[in-house]
Amino acid sequence: MAFLRLFSILAILAMVNASEYDDSTCYSHTCPKVEKISKKITEKFIKDDPTLAPGLLRILFHDCIVRGCDASVLIDPTPSNNATEKDTVPNSTLRGFQVVDAIKAELEQECPGVVSCADVLSLAARDAIVAINGPWWNVPLGRKDGKISLASEALANIPSPFSNITVLKQNFAAVGLTPKDLVVLSAAHTIGIGHCFLIQRRLYNFTGKGDTDPSIDPSYAAELKEKCPKVVGDFKTFVPMDFITPTTFDENYFGIVAKNKGLFQSDAALLNDETTKNYIYTQIYTQGASFIGKDFAESMEKLIQIGILTGDQGEVRKICGAVNGY
């Protein structure tokens, strides 16, 4: 029943017409430098720390998959709401909030109260990936920020790294994304890190009998055990998700998954569906031609239009960590 309620809510949110955006003129008079400012600040941060690129992309995904792309993941806990999306296990390892805050602060100097945090986050994620020579995608502007952020919704709706293919497809379908979008967006794991605590059970106690997940390549499992020792509550140790080219946005993720060396159960699960499996092997044979060329951009453009708020449905926050008037 919870899943059905979620589907109904997000289906209504997704009905907001993307044509309400006008990315060519939205801020042309009110804040014409918005994209220039985002690009400048994001590039500076990424030059100093390229690992923030996958971090920003992950913040955006975690935001859009819960309540739509309304920047609700940016809201800090308060005495009246001490359990926001940000304050959950799935979001405890998010990185890159400082980039969003820096862009927003400069925009508030340039054009106060005009550009939403939701737009800032979408621009920062795109500009960060481009800064590491990844694909570019169009970011329509003009959305508003949400006023609600609930930890319970993040826990219920963010796809889990422990999920099987059935659950993953349900998670994505609930927000209007296809199995192709699932495998394409999962391939963002070509950059970034995974924390060891997320694979402890997979490595050391998969069925509760001290065993290892049989779907993982034994040699890879042995390597991971060396890097991720059996330590309960270790939230600091991590490994690259793409151990071949961990800082390059490329197609190597697909070959890794095909060899049963995907880091998470959710990566391995992509081999258990014909659509996602066929896509993986197609990208291997074509060296990621469509993934890099158009597919990732197309899936991102779908993602960032989930549950958009316009008009009086939301607000433009003064700071991204708090709703106005708090």
List the helices and strands and how they pair.
Layout: H1 2-14, H2 34-48, H3 52-64, H4 97-110, H5 117-131, H6 151-157, H7 165-173, H8 179-186, E1 193-195, H9 200-204, H10 218-227, E2 238-240, H11 252-258, H12 265-268, H13 274-285, H14 289-303
Antiparallel strand pairs: 1-2
Number of strands: 2
Main beta sheet: 2 strands, antiparallel
CATH topology of the largest domain: Peroxidase, domain 1
- Rounded to the nearest angstrom, the radius of gyration is 19 Å
Low-confidence stretches: 1-22
Pattern of helices and strands:
HHHHHHHHEHHEHHHH
Q: What number is the mean pLDDT?
A: 92
Defining traits:
single chain; 326 residues; mainly alpha; Peroxidase, domain 1; Peroxidase, domain 2; 2 domains; two-stranded antiparallel sheet; disordered N terminus
How would you describe this structure to a colleague?
The protein is mainly α. It contains 14 helices and 2 strands, in the order ααααααααβααβαααα. It has helices at residues 2-14, 34-48, 52-64, 97-110, 117-131, 151-157, 165-173, 179-186, 200-204, 218-227, 252-258, 265-268, 274-285, 289-303; strands at 193-195, 238-240. A two-stranded antiparallel ribbon has the order 1-2.
